[in-house]
Amino acid sequence: MSDIFPKWTNQLPLKIAVGLALTGTLAVGGVWYYFTPKYTRVGYQPIQPVPFSHAAHAEQMGIDCRYCHSAVDRAWYSNVPSSSTCMNCHSQVLATDPRLELVRQSAKTGQPIPWVQIHKVPDFVYFNHAVHVNRGVSCFSCHGRIDQAVEVRHEKPLSMTFCLDCHRNPAPNLRPPEQVFNLGWTNDAALQNAAGQKFVHDWKILSLQSCSTCHR
Fold it and tell me: Which residues pair with 174 in a beta bridge?
């Protein structure tokens, strides 16, 4: 009596299982690679309620980062300036510009401007701005040349890999404390690294990679 099904069908379950396994592996690999902050966060640039140009304020007029982000070297967070800080200048400069109407109303009523948050780490991650900037890590390392940005965008992934790369080899991201807020300090990688190596030695900076460093 002849077989009902061709002989090649005997291997069909195995082939289906192998096909499903390969498909699943490719799917997981694709998600693992492309669903990372490098692809899901970098480039995020939402429309803000008030247009603000770092290029005009920081680069052209030379306003120090700490004038607006006054807590960045003293607290775990980099604060967004209050509207009253903006009005220190804009009560005289562009005092009637319609683009700043929301700022004027905020300063008058005390209602905060609803800025859209761009940079954010998960709640289970501990990050302290003051610790980093007071040990020579510039705004540039995490935010790029934000002083040249007309609109703020998510410049670096700020992922665990991103942080660990720096923690394993901090020297390339360290600079003299007086140059931390000078984002265009040098384009010489060798000079940057040499300065960083000195500070790693002088400040006894450790290559902290244990989980409890960031997950507390």
Answer: 137
Which tokens belong to 198? 């000195």
> What CA dihedral angle connects 88, 91, 97 and 103, to 10 degrees?
50
Nearest alpha-carbon partner for 57 in 108, 98, 117, 100: 100
SS3 sequence of 57-79: HHHHCCCCHHHHCCCCCCCCCCC
Quickly list DSSP for 81-136: PPHHHHHHHHTTTTTT-GGGHHHHHHHHH-PPP-PPP-----TT----HHHHHTTT
Check: CB of residue 53 under 8 Å from CB of residue 151.
yes
pTM of the full structure: 0.79
Higher pLDDT, 44 or 36: 44
Could you give the CA distance from residue 151 to residue 156 in angstroms, rounded to a whole number? 15
Q: Token pair of 205, please? A: 């900076």
Q: What's the average model confidence in pLDDT over 1-29? A: 75
Q: How many residues does the chain have?
A: 216
Which residues lie below 8 Å from residue 125, measured CB to CB, with a gap of 6+? 214, 215
Confidence of residue 3 (pLDDT cuts 50, 70, 90): low
